[in-house]
Amino acid sequence: MRTGTPARVGQYTALLAYLVFLAFPFLWLVSTAFKPPRELGSLHPTWIPEDPTLANFRQAFDEQPLLHAALNSLLAALAAAVVAVLIATPMAYVVARRRTRLAKAVTGWVVVSQAFPFVLLIIPLFLVLKNLRLINSVPGLVLVYVVWALPFALWMLAGYVRAVPPELEEAAAVDGAGRVRTLVSVTAPLLAPGIVATALFAFITAWNEFFFALVLLKTAEKQTLPVVLTHFIGAEGVADLGPLAAAAFLATLPSLVVFALIQRRITGGMLTGAVKS
């Protein structure tokens, strides 16, 4: 069906409005990060700073341990991404290759689990970590991130596994390779783009996560970057706007860079499972 010109104009207009809606917070954040205090308190704010300054960035690093918090976030995010992929890859292979009721039930549970709110999970997770003596520790936070990332990682990798021709695995079986050898030597190399995309997505999720880190980490030296950003807000709810915007801008950059690298692969992973040979 051909789309008429008015309809296409309406579609592009709606798309442009949506892009502006998404970009506005980030652009305003960048603008605020470079504004001096005089412009931050102006009754007539401008998009482009009239007198741009780096003082907000210097003040942010002087007031809060941003580098140490970023290191905590980096360690937690990297560990969660690696562990989640290591667990999800063989699980995705089984779910994709074995068309049994159990595999379908696992897939359904994966979809349903994404609807659970954080508040519903935090109490049982807290009790489990308390019994394991992992409260206020980065390993405990990593464990939570792995559990939270596994459903999406499993669903995404299963789509990539379905795109691998079963004939390649059958040929490996004829040559005497077992299931594990086939997965490691034949299937896994073909899944490399999907594995990388899934790991990076898990990294972004853990890097940006705030709620679990706020509840589970108590001491300042263990806190992650999203939690430290809240320290720029005073007891009465008054934010130190310039340093807060500068720190938030720096914290956002890794997510933007990583997402720019994987957005095509994420889309491909979602669509691959829908294509049947």
Number of helices: 13
| Proportion of beta-strand residues | under 5%
Terminal CA distance: 26 Å
Oligomer: single chain
Task: Spell the H/E element sequence.
Answer: HHHHHHHHHHHHH
Shape: globular
Q: What's the rounded overall pLDDT mean?
A: 83
Extract low-pLDDT stretches: 269-277
> Approximately how much helix is present in the residues?
over 70%
Q: Quick one: biggest sheet?
A: none
Structural class, by secondary structure, is mainly alpha
Taking all Cα atoms into account, the compactness measure Rg is 23 Å
Written account of the structure:
This protein is mainly α and 277 residues long. Helix content is 75%, strand content 0%. The chain is globular.
Question: Keywords, please?
Answer:
277 residues; globular; mainly alpha; 0% strand
Q: What are the SSEs and their pairings?
A:
Blueprint: H1 5-33, H2 37-40, H3 55-63, H4 66-97, H5 101-113, H6 118-131, H7 138-163, H8 166-174, H9 179-190, H10 192-208, H11 211-216, H12 225-229, H13 241-272
Helix pairs in contact: 1-13, 3-13, 4-7, 4-10, 5-7, 7-10, 7-13, 8-9, 10-13
